[in-house]
Specification:
The chain has about 400 residues and is mostly helical. It contains 15 helices and 5 strands.
Length: about 400
């Protein structure tokens, strides 16, 4: 009975490791969907590619082959997976070459910096994938497992980045693929060894199985070095973002307070950045002001002192002012319709009398100015005549 069950598992794993038309077609489809989704920066499309991809099948076969020591089955499964990877890289690179989209979106860049969290996800996903293989009543979890596994998108990212000659980022995507691959394999090994007594027995009896088991976990352990470094960088980045949010909240509160203001009315915070590479770190503010004298040095110094009092570090506050000029205040437009469209509010008709009076005043003012200028010219002319009468020209005699 037990040997029959092991034979069934062996036969099923052979089918999973088989390189056939179905695997190739699904790989091409998943690769195209994922690549186009990455270029469109659409997370939903990329998720669809994860569901279509059949790569979890040779990975499950690999886990079974490692545990029972079947080297041929392991080679077949890895060959199938290798062919899928090569097809996907070439396909994504080709699509990148023929499409005019060269700017990468967030869906691409976030797959170039793996960390320990990605390894943890892969370990759990690998265990669930094997559990769904062993328990038919858990087959409904396969779709979710395929999404969690996410093997195809990192490979597509590699193809896109290699096509655009972004080598360092492509290495990061390759590291994510290796993390998912070894994490899934390791999680699957643990789950299968735990759930199947026959497999555990073969693992204890076969030196080859034990060696393969140790090799898999050894390779996975090597990933801890770069992944831990990335994880620490992620933690540091999140802490910096939290500090930035706290400082921004503090400064925004200064804009509203009356006891310690940041410049009074007419000062709006437009942008806040922190240069962490400086010592002390520099808080760089961009504020929009209507008064070019605000905020003053005294106000900036007071805010800097208050920030340093609240934080665990000392910061240097640097403020850049941009003077803005706002036109006269207009009345609100009318909101009409269910969609909330705006229309201009009707303007009451104005009398033309004030305009006429204004024109008359301007004409009168211009006339008075002309009369004053004429009087000034006459006065200057009279002065010149009087000077000539009092001082006749001298005659020179020989």
């Amino acid at each position: 009975m037990e040997s029959t069950r092991l034979e069934r598992m062996h036969k099923s794993s052979k089918e999973d490791a088989n390189l056939d038309e179905v695997f190739v077609i699904l790989t091409i489809g998943a690769g195209m969907i994922a690549t186009l989704g990455l270029q469109a920066n659409s997370a939903a499309v990329v998720i669809g590619a994860m569901v279509v991809a059949p790569w979890i099948l040779p990975l499950r076969a690999s886990a079974f082959a490692v545990l029972i020591g079947d080297l041929r089955l392991l080679m077949d499964a890895l060959r199938t997976l290798f062919v899928g990877v090569v097809i996907t890289i070439l396909l994504s690179a080709l699509l990148a070459a023929i499409t005019p989209i060269h700017e990468m979106g967030s869906e691409v860049w976030k797959r170039t910096e793996p960390n320990l969290l990605d390894l943890g996800i892969a370990l759990v996903a690998g265990g669930i994938a094997i559990y769904a293989k062993l328990r038919r009543d858990a087959v409904s979890s396969l779709a979710g497992t395929a999404i969690a596994v996410a093997l195809v998108p990192p490979v597509c990212v590699m193809g896109l980045l290699l096509s655009n000659q972004k080598w360092d980022a492509a290495i990061g995507a390759g590291l994510l693929f290796a993390t998912n691959l070894l994490g899934i394999l390791s999680g699957g090994l643990v789950m299968m060894a735990w759930r199947e007594p026959l497999v555990r027995q073969r693992l204890r009896e076969s030196h080859l199985s034990a060696a393969n088991f140790a090799l898999t976990f050894g390779l996975t352990a090597l990933l801890l070095i770069p992944l831990t470094n990335s994880f620490l960088n992620l933690v540091s980045k999140k802490q910096n973002e939290r500090t930035r949010d706290e400082i921004q909240h503090t400064i925004e509160s200064f804009l509203k307070r009356k006891t310690l203001t940041f410049g009074g009315e007419g000062v709006d915070l437009e942008k806040l950045d922190i240069a962490w590479d400086k010592n002390p770190p520099e808080i760089r503010l961009l504020v929009l002001v209507t008064n070019p004298e605000l905020p003053s040095l005294k106000q900036v110094s007071a805010v800097q002192k208050e920030i340093n009092k609240r934080q665990g570090l000392d910061y240097q506050l640097i403020v850049q002012r941009i003077v803005v000029i706002q036109g006269p205040q207009e009345k609100a437009n009318l909101i009409t319709g269910k969609e909330g469209g705006l229309i201009k509010a009707p303007t009451p008709e104005r009398s033309l009398a004030p305009i006429s009076e204004t024109e008359q005043q301007l004409q009168k003012q211009n006339l008075e100015e002309a009369e004053q200028q004429e009087k000034l010219r006459n006065r200057n002319h009279q002065t010149i005549n009087q000077t000539q009468e009092n001082n006749p020209p001298l005659s020179i005699s020989n």
